[in-house]
Amino acid sequence: MGRHVVYYSEKFVLSDDSFDTTRKAAWVAASLAEEPIPGVVLAEPAPIPLQSAAAVHTPAYLDALRTGSPAVLANSPNIAWDKNTLVRSLITCGGMLDAGRSAMKNRVAGCLASGFHHARKDRGKGYCTLNGLAIAAQALAEGGRNHILVLDLDAHCGGGTHSAIQGHVRLWQIDVSVNSYDCYQPGPRGLLQVVTDARQYLKTVWRCLQHAEAEWPLFSLCLYNAGMDVHEDCQNGGLAGMDELIITLREEMVFQWCAERGIPIAYALAGGYTGGKMTTKRLVNLHRLTQAGAGWG
Ligand SMILES: [Zn+2]
Question: 156: CA distance to ligand 1 center in Å?
Fold first, then answer.
């Protein structure tokens, strides 16, 4: 089983506003320390400089995240603003960028951050502050001929990523969702499918990957938004019939597809929420399926 670096910083969970998106990176890191997955090595990422965030986000929005004003913009991610909001967001994006760079050298890497794909250029949305997927994709596509695929299998659609990267000729997006929240009209470099029957889920992911292989250029990197909120017991997003087995098979399919084609892959945690039958322990175990799948890719 291959070794892969997973980026995590205690600063990922600096937010005063406490809920899954602002805490679960620490839960997964603690679980990895307690019960290691062979090959997974945790590493501290570097924050991205403000100018890298400015390649995607507007000065007015970044200023609101720094100062807390205007409040409507500073709180637009639906995470209560505090004085560490910008610091936290810059380092989660740094984790994604470092994972992308590490994957391009070592084939596979990960980042324990979540909360990227709904963030727009000019505001946050749906627990997403800065769009680390768009920022990393843009930074890693620049200065070369790298084509980069954003593969978004979170339960919800990645409308923020779409709006941030759609004009870029080397950035591509496959989005298979089970919920129409943040839905959008994909352009020529995008595919969006909203699955409503769990029996069609794996087939749909596979068809999208096959379409990309047949019609699109060879990718230098895949940035994978590995949401676990597709699970049927996840009250925010889940689809009936989506169980651990389907998600395990999904992770194996994604990492194998990349490995067989020599495409480096860097993943982020993305969605997955506690509540009802979804305990913290179960949620952490779902996210561990990604780390385990990455090892077999
Ligand atoms: Zn989601």
Answer: 4
